[in-house]
Amino acid sequence: MLIVSKRLTPAFKKTLISAPKPQYVPETSLCDWIIREVAMQDYGMLLCINCNTQMPIVLPGAEFLKVSPVSVLRQVLMFVMAGMGISSIKLTEYVNCITHGEVSYQNMTGDFLAEKAFRAYAPELAKIDIERLGDDQLLNQLGILSLTLGSSTKVFCDLREPKIAPAVRFKDQINQEWRLPAQRKGSMAEKLVWEFDYRLFHQWDDQLQNTPAWPGYAAGGREMRQVNDAFLRSYHEYLKQTEIVDDTRMQRYLRLADIYLNRYLIASHPETLTSDLTAPTAYLFEWLLEHGQIKPENVQLVIDAMLALGTFIKATGVYSTLDEDLYRQAVRDGGDRVRAFFKAAAAQEQLEAKDDEPVSRQEIAGSQVDALVQELMALADDERLVDALADVLNQTPTLIDKLLVKMTPLQRQHLAQKLARLLDEDQNN
After folding, report:
1. How much is the pTM?
2. What is the per-residue pLDDT across 164-182, written as a single tens digit (0 to 9) for each?
3. Cα separation, 419 vs 151, whole angstroms
4. Fewer CB atoms inside 10 Å of the end CB: C or N, the chain?
5. DSSP string across 234-284
């Protein structure tokens, strides 16, 4: 449900974009957002607060939007969730739930933490220079701003969990509440060569919300590892007999599968390979990156290993065809997120390396252009503009051309008028 201030009623009653209904997961309270107007300098913006996690999302003001803010919230959320490494399947399901959810119009709520979050975020937004948010890719920029606000433990934190940032809490709850379990049911029509009893993995389905603090967690983990180890032995035989990889690559495949089943999935909840078909995305993007197990040179190898594991799971009858399709999409999503991460890291390294290089005359001129543009904007109707123009004219013609390109039509008009007046005064004298 979206809880919207009454002043925004006309904006939210605009026609929504069409979006399919969620197929795999039901709507939960994690879909509840409170939306109100806030001021960023002289601009009206919309601040959305997730009721469960206090995650903030910043949107353009309703007066600037030609469509319903729900549509824009959907787009920004997709950008933010992709940046968190959440599977495209899961984020699509989530934003579609919001699109199809109810809208309630009320100015205040009884949610203490959400109201406290509004009071914490609003002053931070007022400090942001709205002029730096250009029209190009504005929604992506607002997504980055939202992630920055939500990732800080200093702006706002849940009083119950003061060390966990809202963005982290939002990501964790999405992954925990919005699991897409394997739907394999019944027996196979024909005997499979590598058949494995899928029910062994489903025996912990009712315990997924348990954490390591649960008294029976350790014993359950040992039982899960026994099942996983039996499954991995079959996987080893499958790899040897199918001869799809050499011995070195096979060992890498087995090691990555072992880490996935016996370390990653069991780390915080009693999960198996049937608990959440989208788990490979976070496994690739978070765990392997955090533990240094994936590098730019071995990304494709890791992806191939996870895809091969999915093929074997399907061959055992534990996954249906649809299950495998969703699993493979999650693997591809994780690979895309990892590649984007390494690409961004490489670009940052290039920038840092460039900062250490000697500064060229052209780069100095470019910085001077930026400074002069700002000065001309401030001095458009000031006599000190003469001095500023003198500085410009002392530069190269190329610099003058760059300056004119950067100026707006209104600034050029002011400049032309000032120059005309100066010429008239010079002729009269």
Report:
1. 0.71
2. 888 888 888 888 888 888 8
3. 50
4. C
5. HHHHHHHHHT-S-HHHHHHHHHHHHHIIIIITTSSS---TTT-TTHHHHII
